[in-house]
Amino acid sequence: MGRTVAPFSRVLEAEFESWNKFRRALRREDQEAMDALFAAAKYHVAAMVYASRLTPLEAILMGILVEHQKAITQLKGRVRELEAGMSPPFALKADGS
């Protein structure tokens, strides 16, 4: 009989719980940021299972990094759009007006 493997969503939750003391030591806004990190990892549970890393935290961190990279790419695109829509800076006339 093959070994029983816990669903990775449970592994992810257990990893989150294992950081509970660390989380409690954080300020409220940092606790919320940490919660958001683990929430971002949940989008990539299937990839984490497929990776089957010995240390689940490696796969969790990679899932978080993927979400951060997507956000960075989106923000860069938005900055480019905003910069393209800006009119060029105004030029002063020789008389200072």
Q: What's the multimeric state?
A: single chain
Specify the overall morphology.
Answer: elongated
Report Rg.
22 Å
Structural class: mainly alpha
Question: Uncertain spans, ≥5 residues at pLDDT below 50?
Answer: none
| Element-by-element helix/strand order | HHHHH
User: Percent helix among the residues?
Assistant: over 70%
Number of helices: 5
Strand content: under 5%
- Give the domain tally: 1
Number of strands: 0
Q: Which whole number gives the mean pLDDT?
A: 87
Q: What is the terminal separation in angstroms? A: 85 Å
Largest sheet: none
Could you provide a short overview of the structure?
The protein has 97 residues and is mostly helical. It contains five helices and no strands.
Show the helix and strand layout:
Blueprint: H1 8-18, H2 20-25, H3 28-41, H4 45-51, H5 56-85
Helix pairs in contact: 3-5, 4-5
Explain this structure to me?
The chain contains five helices and no strands. The mean pLDDT is 87. The protein has one domain. Helix 3 crosses helix 5 and helix 4 packs across helix 5. The chain has 97 residues and is mainly alpha-helical.
What keywords describe this structure?
97 residues; mainly alpha; elongated
